[in-house]
UniProtKB/TrEMBL annotation:
Family: Belongs to the CTAG/PCC1 family.
Protein name per its UniProtKB record: Transcription factor Pcc1
A GO term from the CC aspect: EKC/KEOPS complex
Single GO BP term: tRNA threonylcarbamoyladenosine metabolic process
Composition skew (Low complexity), residue ranges: 47-65
Amino acid sequence: MAAQSDPEFPCSLTIDVPLPTARLASAALQSLRVDQELSPLVRRSFSTIPSPNSPTASSSSSSSPENTVLRTEYKATTNRMLRVAVNGFMESLSTVLGVMEELDVDVLGRDQ
């Protein structure tokens, strides 16, 4: 499936981050969405999508798969701007995932 090319923002990247639950994917999305891109030369959008490995509705007891994958789509005017923006995003994502690992309520219920 080919994406439409945007002449203003020709450089693009889609990052999919699988998470264990839809709740964690949604929490990551809400946490990362707060910080806006600083440069007008970069555009970013977030969404959650079902995992490609999730069972289809016909073979599952639930009517729709859970959105457990955090999808981040970047568009930029140059490869350099894309790289700089994605580096910043990875730093923020690392912080969010570290906090989830240390403080999430599901983690507190695990046997150590």
